[in-house]
Amino acid sequence: MARTRIYAGNPQPLGATWDGRGVNFALFSAHATRVELCLFDASGKREIERLDLPEFTNEVWHGYSPDVRPGTLYGYRVHGPYAPEKGHRFNHHKLLLDPYAKAIHGGLKWSDAHFGYRLDSKRADLSFDRRDSAHGMPKSQVIDPAFTWGNSTRPQLPWAETIIYEAHVRGMTKRHPDVSEPQRGTVAGLAAPQVIAHLKSLGVTAVELLPVHAFVNSRFLTSRGLTNYWGYDSIGFFAPEPRYLASDSPQEFKTMVSRFHDANIEVILDVVYNHTAEGNELGPTLCFRGIDNLSYYRLLPDNPRYYINDTGTGNTVNLNHPRVMQMVMDSLRYWVTDMHVDGFRFDLCSTLGREPNGFNPDCPFFSALRQDPVLANVKLIAEPWDIGPGGYQLGNFGPPWGEWNDRSRDTIRRYWRGDGGVLPDLAGRLAGSADLFDRQGRRPWNCINFITAHDGFTLRDVVSYNEKHNEANGEDNRDGHNENISRNHGVEGPTDNPDIEAARHQDCRNMMATLLLAQGTPMMLAGDEFLRTQNGNNNAYCQDNEINWIDWSGIDPEGQNMTRFTQKVIALRRRFPILHHAQFLHGRNESADGLKDITWLSPSGEEMTTEQWHDHNARCAGVMLNEAAVSPAPSGDESLILILLNAHTESIPFTFPKVPMGQNWEKLLDTTRTADPADETIDKPAVDLHGQSLSLFVRRR
To answer: Which of 302, 324, 502, 529: CA 20 to 30 A from 627?
Structure first.
């Protein structure tokens, strides 16, 4: 067989780039002494050739081969010093993934050969292991990026109109009866017409997918028969996870995005740039560690043998290095320009803004995002915390960031659980958390409200369990949060008691309505619209089974009622723009008739007093929103919206506020009702507000 030719090539772009005639390979490593390109047969099992990258320019090793074609499987062996005490962990016996690989073939098959040190050594993390890891490594794959997008265009929906649906690629369709068996649990399944039709019927405008970047299952989990289901262990920031592709081609992801865009639904990716799957100093050598450990990771300055662990996963990606920041920026731009995604949610985002002196909202990475002509026009969402020093940074990210607001989650749960003293904080969360976000020109939509997410209880479990039940995770129920701000209504878990079930369902409607009627951007968890359960598991990160897979065929009548209820609340939110206004409402603006843009009311129908706000036992209030007081008025009818909330167990008579308008109040929503009744006109001066309920009224000018 003729030897594959390789010439100097170019140092840019990084990765393996097909130009129609051959492939250019480029790999950054500042401290390597030699880089071998390893080519494999179509199965990925046999290494057929090794080629030295012949040039080293600007700390990039590169070469061009006219003989390599799309579909070729490859990896790298990187030579250099093995000196962990100095931060270097080169080991050319370990096959390495290309950090810029656009596709990855196969999965990781664990063995001791993946570790750069000998496990039986007295100095395990300093010894040098000569076993070859190639047989158990996934392989990078050259791709042809060509794709016909046709007439597909980005929805580019305004933030103020955005409603997010957080979903998992696999869990969304693994048990969907209308998705073909080969496509269940894949990107192709997610793009099935029945799935998109459901999302359209709900009224959501964006799907936020849990990590789709290539990731690995940790050895700890595989040894216990578990898996890294959530995907927060990235090993490639450009390649879709292979197990999510029914066709084994990344083009499948583009097809999915195109179909979502055709339905006017945006695609947002949950991305993990704060750490990698290589773990701490005792972790495997799969990619970055073997390419240039000293550059890619943040190491202890006085002892670079060890990693800074602000993420709780063993390592922290070194975004302070220009080449590492370039990789992250290149990754983000790739997913926008080539894959056409519409935004990103950044896992443990405080880590990405941490500098030696602490968190900096103007750090180089965030500044680069703000000025980048590609990324400045997509939705950027921060998970504004990590476990590092000063890690909780809710409200401190500044423009243009949206931020997950866990205070909104906790406050809504506490209020409907019946906790005392919550009413003032609830008012702030319903008004878009201006105390956290109203500065630097930020808007209510910068606040991402949620009551549930992948991490924690589902909505049904919030009202069914007082305690977590994570026994299936194999850690004796020690993992996961201990405080869930939940209540089981008297019975832990499932029950046949109809009164308890009715109370639980009403509680779910209360929280869903509060979420969707609050100012800001709502995010709901997939399956909450029909009361999906995880049986009390609040940390189902390792459960690739029925605990996480949505059971579409098992939706009971109450689940169907909940779906219709959710559809109705979303429709109301979209019908009345004052429910998702683009400006904060502070009660400072008035319409010509003297009514404020927002007014908080006591059950007497009068504006809340300071004493009433400080009443620890107060659990009932109303908020009136006045479209005519905002400029310009967001809709033609300039309606008044009145939302009444009662977390007391008993009914409370609520007097309607006196307004200079002749029409009666019309009830459009009542969480005590399981069906979808016709709207009801109220011709009385007061209404009996049922215990543990929320109602919405409109009065037209």
So the answer is: 529
From CA 632, how far away is CA 416, in angstroms rounded?
Answer: 34
Q: Report yes or no: 64 and 10 within 8 Å, Cβ to Cβ.
A: yes
Could you tell me the two tokens for 672?
């005590």
Half-sphere exposure of 179 (CA within 13 A, CB side): 30
- Note the residue count of the chain: 701
User: How confident is the model over 289-307, as pLDDT tens digits?
Assistant: 999 999 999 999 999 999 9
3-class secondary structure for 439-494? CCCCCHHHEEEECCCCCCCCHHHHCCCCCCCCHHHCCCCCCCCCCCCCCCCCCCCC
Amino acid at position 571, single letter: A
> Which residues carry out catalysis?
347, 383
Token pair for residue 680? 């009801």
Q: In one letter, which amino acid is 258?
A: S
Say whether the peptide bond before residue 240 is cis (omega within 30 degrees of 0): no
Q: Where are the domains of the chain?
A: 15-141
In the chain, which stretches have pLDDT less than 70? 1, 119-125, 631-637, 675-677
Report whether 109 contacts 324 (CB < 8 A).
no
Q: What is the pLDDT of residue 118?
A: 81
Tens-digit pLDDT profile for residues 131-189? 999 999 999 999 999 999 999 899 999 999 999 999 999 999 999 999 999 999 999 99
For residue 77, the cross-strand partners are 36
Segments in 39-129 forming alpha helices (H): none
Q: Which pLDDT value is given to residue 675?
A: 64
- Tell me, rounded to whole angstroms, the distance of Cα 418 from its chain centroid: 29
| DSSP assignment string, 200-242 | HHHT--EEEESP-EEE---HHHHTTT----S---EEEEEEEPG
The CA distance from 520 to 430, in Å, is 8
Neighbouring-strand partners of residue 379: 343
Nearest residue to 146 (alpha-carbon basis) of 9, 251, 15: 251
396: its two tokens? 């401190």
CA–CA separation, 6 vs 509, rounded Å? 64
Tokens for 511, please give them.
Answer: 């929280």
Quick one: pLDDT at residue 439? Answer: 96
And the tokens for 679?
């709207």
Distance, CA of 643 to CA of 620 (rounded, Å):
11
Identify which of 78, 117, 71, 118 has the alpha carbon closest to the alpha carbon of residue 97.
78
Taking CA atoms, 599 is separated from 67, 318, 586, in Å, by: 72, 48, 9
Instruction: Kindly list the distances between the CA atom of residue 698 and the CA atoms of 131, 160, 202, 605, 682, in Å, as whole numbers in the listed order.
Output: 72, 21, 22, 15, 10
pLDDT of residue 2: 73
Closest CA to 448 of 393, 399, 401: 401
**Residue indicated by tokens 């990258």:** 53
Instruction: Give residue 119's pLDDT.
Output: 66
CB 460 within 8 A of CB 503: no
Determine the pLDDT at residue 592. Answer: 87
Among 432, 429, 525, 462, CA closest to 209 = 525
559 by Cβ neighbours in 10 Å (0-12 / 13-18 / 19+) ranks as middle
- Which CATH number describes the domain made up of 15-141? 2.60.40.10
Residue 271 pairs with which residues in a beta bridge? 346
